[in-house]
């Protein structure tokens, strides 16, 4: 990657860059590409997992409602403004 590539990217992104910004961006891009190369060089098959990952199934169980569940009264108490069973909100255009 060189300055011409950075200039082409800036043109595509429709942004203006000073020469200093182009050099900084080039340096950043090179760092990113070097990091990607480093990651690509790791052979995943050789890496040992620290965790015993397996599917965790849980049966759906119907539980009785408790007073901690959401209810209209609890929501209305926490809402700043309400009228009857309706919650008042600001008009959005």
Question: Could you walk me through the main structural features you see in this protein, from its secondary elements to its overall organization?
Answer:
The chain is mainly alpha-helical and 93 residues long. The chain is built from three helices and two strands; from the N terminus they run αααββ. The protein has a domain at 3-42: Histone, subunit A. The chain has a two-stranded antiparallel ribbon. A hairpin with a 2-residue loop joins strand 1 (82-83) and strand 2. The longest helix has 22 residues, at 19-40. It is flat and about 65 Å long. The two termini are 47 Å apart.
Keywords, please?
93 residues, mainly alpha, Histone, subunit A, two-stranded antiparallel sheet, flat, Asp/Glu-ADT_sf_sub_c, GatC, Aspartyl/glutamyl-tRNA(Asn/Gln) amidotransferase subunit C
